[in-house]
Amino acid sequence: MKYTKYLLSAATVLTYMVAVDAPQGTVFAQSKGMLPEILVTARKREESLQKIPITVSAYTAESIAKLGIDDMSRLSDFSPNFSFEKFGGRRGAEGDTSRPVIRGQSNILGEGNASFFVDGIPYSESILSFPIDAVERVEVVKGPQAALFGRSTFSGAINLITKRGTNEFRNRITGRAASHNDYEFNVSSSGPVVEDKLFFFAQARYYDYGGEYKNELDGTKVGQEMSYGFNGSLEFRASPDVTIIGRFGYNKDDDGLPATRVQDRFANNCFLGEARQYFCGEIPEFKTVVLNKSGLLGESGLEREVIRGSLTLEWDLGGTGYLLTSNSGFTTANTTFGNDQTNLGDPIGFAGGIFTRVEDQDRQEWSTELRIASPEDRSFRYMVGGYYYTRDNERVRRFPASTTIITDFGLDRVKNIAVFGSVELDVTDAITARAEVRWQSDEISLHQASGTVLRDTFKELLPRFTLDYQVSDSTLLYAIVAKGNKPGAFNTDPSLPSFARSADEETAWNYEAGAKWTSEDGRLRANVAGFYIDWQDQQLTNSILVMGTPISFISNAGETEVWGFEFEGNALVTDNWEIGATVGFVSAEFKTNCDPVQGSQLTGFDCVSDTGIAGGSVKGNQTPNSPKLQMSVSSTYTQPVSGDLDWFLRGDYAYRSKVYAQVHNLAHTGDRHLVNLKTGLQQDNWKFTFFVDNVLDDLTPSTIVRFADLGNLNIGPQANPAQDNVPGSTVVERGFLVPLADGRQFGVTATLDF
User: What's residue 619's pLDDT?
Assistant: First the structure.
C-alpha cells in the first residue's frame, strides 16, 4: 500500500504517545502532572471536550501561541483531515480561492463545503487575516453541522471564539520580528468597568510583511502584506440571570501582488495531440514570479476593509434554568483586487496588456438566531430555535485606473430561513440518545446587469442522530448519523451559455463512530473516530471554451464515496515533557462521475475528459484539493533554570500527502514535510521565543489550480503562431496556477503580561 510506511510510522508514534482530542500542545498541566479540562460550545452549550459525542479539534489561545499560529491556514497543518490552503496571501477577491476542506469533501469554485463562524456568526469573508491574538479558542467541528450551525456546513464548521473581559484586569503586549521583513505587534487589555457588572476587552494589531519572492520583470518583491485593526467587546451582566455581550471588529488589509505563477503551456507533457494539452505529474517548485505590475497603473494587489459586529443575549428565565439565547451579527467587506491575470507578465506589447484587471467587490451579510433550551440537569432536555440569514455580494471587473467595466457579475443574493431543534434523553445513567433536525429554505438569486433575475429556492430537512455511552468517567463511546447539504448556486459570468448558468444542490449522509478516553491520573487522553460518507451531486469546477477563451464554472458531479479515520493525541511523559500526535486518513473517491465540458453539450458525448476526448470517466479518482494522509508530531520540553524562570524547547512536524488539481488526478503538488523549531525563556508574566519555521525549506505548494496559459490566445488578431505550442490550434492551451509556498523563516517573538 502506497501509504503503508506513513501509517506504520503513525502507529509507532501512537504506541508511545497516546492520542487525545486536544491536538498537540493544546493542553498543558493545569495542576502539576495533569492535563486540564477543555470546554467547547460545538452544540450551542458549554461542555467538556472529552464528554461531547462529536469529533472536535479544539485549540486554546495558549496552544495556538505555542504552535506559532498566525493564520488559519497554518492551524490546518496540525488538525487531521482538515486542510485550508493559503492561496497567494490574503487574496479575497477574484473568486475567493481559499476554501476549507474537511474529510475529503472539497470544492474549487463557489461556497466552501465547510464554513467559518466568529462567535457563532457566519463569516464569509477571507478568514486568513483575522487577528489570531483576539481569539480565545478555535473549534474545528467535523461532520455535517447543519442541524445547529446552519447552511454550508455539511462537511463541518470552524468556529472562532473571541476573548472576553473578566473581573480581573489583564494586559498583554506581543511582538514578532522575523526574516523577510516580517513584523507584528499586538496589544490587548481586559477587565471590569463596573465590578461584577460590566466588563471590557480591547485588542489592536499592526502587521507588516515584506514578501519573499522576486518579480522577474522589475526586480521588486511580491507577496507583501500589511494589516491593522481593532477588536473589542463589552459584556453587561444586568442581573444574575441576564447577560448581554456586544462585539465589534475592524480590519484593514493592504497587500501587494500575490506570489503566484502559472506553469506555462510549454511544460505540458501529456495529451500532446489534443488542442489544449495537459500536464501529468508533480508540479515543480518556482523561485520567482513574472507579474505585470506597471500595467495595473497603481492598483496592484489587494485592499480590503472589513467591519463586523454582533450582539448576544443570554437570559435564564426567572432563574428556572430555561435559557433564552439571541445571537445576531453582521459583516461588511469592501475589496479591490488588481492583478496580472496571466500570472506570466501579461506583456504591454501584447494587445496592450489585456489581462491586467481590477476587481471590486462589496459583500454584506447579516444573521440572527433565537433559541430556548430547557434546564441541563434533567433527564429529558430539548432546545428549539429560529434563524434568518441574508447575504449580498456585488462584483465587477474593470480596467486599471478606470471606471470602465469589462464584466459586471451582478448582485449575488442569498436568503435563508430556518427552524431547528433537538431532544435529548438519558436512557440510563450511562446512555444518552439525541435527535436534532433543521428545516431550512434557501433562496438564491442573481440580479444581472441586464436586468434579468435568476432565482431558485432549495428546501431541505436535515437531521442528526447521536447515541453515546459513558462507559466510565474516563471513557466515552458514540455513534452519529447525519445529513448535510449545500444549496445550489448560479455562475455569475454573463458570457456563459444557458446550460452552464447554475448548479444543483448537493447532499451527503455521514455515518460516524468514535471513542474518547482519559487516563485515571489525567496524564493521557486517547480519541479516535471513523467515518463513512455517501456524497451525491457535489459541486465541482468545470471549464468551457467561449469563443476560444476558457471560462470556469460550477457544475454537479456524480457520486462520491468517502471513508477514513482520525487520531489526536497528547501525553505528559513527565511533568516537564509533553508530546503529542495527530493522524488523519481519508479516501474520497468518485464512484460515478465525468467531466462534462462544452463537447458533451455540443456533440452529445455522455462523458468527456478535460481535453475533450469522449469517455473521460474519473471513477476511482480522488477528489481534488484533498490530501489522503495528514500527520503531525510535536514535543515540548521545559527545564527550570532559576526560581520561576524556565527554558523550553519545542519541535513540530507536519506531513501532508499530495493534492490533485482536478478530478482527473493528473497534475499534483507532491508531498509536503513541514518542520518547525522553537526555543526560549519564560516566566509567569513574560515569554521570549526564537523560532525557525519550515526548517527544511520545503516549497511544495499548498495547492494548484487548473488554469490556462493566456500568454498566447491562439485566436483572432492576438494569434501568434511563433509562440504556438500546438501548431494550428485555435484554443488557449493549458497552464497551471501555483501559489508559491512560504519558505524557511527565522524570527523572535516576545510576550509581556501585566
Answer: 80
Q: Judging by beta carbons within 10 Å of its beta carbon (0-12, 13-18, 19+), is residue 318 exposed, middle or buried?
A: exposed
Q: What's the pLDDT at 271?
A: 82
The pLDDT of residue 347? 66
For residue 578, give every residue at least 6 positions away whose Cβ sits within 8 Å of its Cβ, in sequence order, or none.
25, 28, 570, 571, 572, 635, 636
Predicted confidence at residue 598, as pLDDT, reads 33
Q: Kindly state the greatest CA–CA separation across the chain.
A: 81
* pLDDT score for 605: 32
User: 259: which residues sit within 8 A by CB, 6+ positions away?
Assistant: 88, 89, 211, 212, 213, 222, 223, 289, 739, 740
Q: pLDDT below 50 — which residues of the chain?
A: 1-31, 90-96, 349-352, 596-615, 716-717
Q: Cell for 513?
A: 463512530
Q: What is the DSSP letter of 35?
A: P
Note the pLDDT of residue 244.
97
Q: Determine the pLDDT at residue 270.
A: 87
* Closest C-alpha to 393, from 409, 412, 415, 372: 412
3-state SS, residue 9: helix
Alpha-carbon distance values, 406 to 39, 204, 272, 336, 383 (Å): 51, 38, 33, 15, 50
Of the candidates 11, 25, 22, the residue with the CA atom closest to the CA atom of residue 637: 25
Rounded to whole angstroms, how far apart are CA atoms 21 and 56? 7
Please measure the distance between the N-terminal and C-terminal CA atoms of the chain and give it in whole angstroms: 54
Give CA–CA dist 276/685, Å, rounded. Answer: 61
187 near 262, Cβ under 8 Å?
Answer: no
Cβ within 8 Å of residue 365, ≥6 positions away: 122, 124, 330, 331, 389, 390, 391, 392
CA–CA dist 582, 100 (Å, integer): 18
Set of cell numbers at residue 254 = 493592504
Residues 44/47/49/53 CA torsion (nearest 10 deg) = -70
C-alpha cell at 443: 433562496
- Nearest CA to 70 out of 56, 89, 53, 83 is that of 89
3-state secondary structure 472-517: ECCEEEEEEEEEEEECCEECCCCCCCHHHCEECCEEEEEEEEEEEE
CA angle 728, 733, 736 (to 5 degrees): 165
pLDDT at residue 601, as a whole number: 34
Per-position DSSP letters for 275-306, written without gaps between them: SS-B--EEPPP-SEE----GGGTT--EEEEEE
Cell reading at 546: 467561449
242-255/301-316 β-pairing: antiparallel
The residue type of 297 is L
The per-residue DSSP string of 610-648 comes to: TTS-B--B-TTPBPTT--SEEEEEEEEEEEEEETTEEEE
pLDDT digits (tens, 9 = 90+) for 106-146: 888 778 889 999 999 999 888 888 999 999 999 999 999 98
Residue whose C-alpha cell reads 440510563 in the numeric block: 428
Checking DSSP bridges between strand 213-215 and strand 288-289, what pairing results, if any? Answer: parallel
CA atoms within 13 A on the CB side of 733: 29
Domain 4-753 has CATH 2.40.170.20: yes
pLDDT in tens, 384-394: 999 999 999 99
Outline where DSSP puts E strands in 103-194. 114-118, 121-122, 135-142, 156-162, 170-178, 182-194
DSSP code of residue 266: G
- Please provide the average confidence, as pLDDT, over all residues in the chain: 86
CB 528 within 8 A of CB 584: no
| 490: CB partners within 8 A, 6+ apart | 412, 444, 445, 446, 454, 456, 501, 502
Q: Report domain extents, the chain.
A: 4-753
Phi, psi torsion values for 169, nearest 5 degrees: -70, 130
In this prediction, residue 124 carries a pLDDT of 87
> Among residues of the chain, what percentage have pLDDT more than 70?
87
